[in-house]
Amino acid sequence: MIKKIFHNIVTILQMIRFSHTVFALPFALIAAFLAPNSGAGGFCGWGKLLLMVLCMVFARSIAMTFNRIVDARLDFLNPRTAHRAIPAGKLTVRNAWVFLFFCSLLFAFSAGLFWKPLGPWFGYGNYWPTLLAGPVLIFICLYSFTKRFTWAAHFWLGASLMLAPVGTWIAISPPYGPLLSPSALVLGAAVLLWVTGFDIIYACQDVEVDRRDGLYSLPARLGVPLALWISRTCHGLTVTALLLLALTAPLGQIYLGAVVLTALLLLTEHLLVGAGRVKLAFDLNGPVGILLAAAVIADILF
User: Domain spans of the chain?
Assistant: First the structure.
């Protein structure tokens, strides 16, 4: 019994690509260090930091599990994704729903601890995470349906990951600071554009399958060359937003150095795409968030 439960847990973590948490979590950490003291920056405290990480992990797990459930039939028909847990029969839909249900409870519980204490722990008088928990989950789960009716699905995914830094700001700043600030919005815009850009690149792997199944990805609808120009534009605007963040937040030379390195990574990504190395190009996005988060934390603390 224990061996079966462990096997299911490992299968679920593989299904939701837990390692891809590196795409959103670093930007939530950036917001967590920029939001304290009314946007002047600082350490938010271990309690808030722990709750933020828990909310991030549970929210992403919910969104990915829901996506795998909704897309099970499409994944089965796509040779690239047919090996995923549900279409390959490694995990039942019922078990996926059970996992999603418990993650939803834990997400709501973690969000509630920003408001009400659990005995002597947590409880910061901030009711916004509790109020917004439901709408956030609905928004990020609806992404799974967008590819069926709009080419803007890539932007919806970008907006979903944008909620990581924006939501973190809302969780950390009140009740003593503003709900949002220009820095939060600029950081959110950078994430939206960055994710949109690399999701368009990712979709280039499935052009023929998307056309066959009537899905609305930009490469399938507009052709790969035009879609890649949109991706390049998004990443150019990403770098612009990251530079603008240095004007609205207390960031200095360490952060600006990281932005330059980020620009070089994104440039390399597009050069690799041009050479047909789509998978390798996509993987270059992993270090981007880690690099920027490390630079922001270093600038704020040191």
Answer: 22-46+123-301
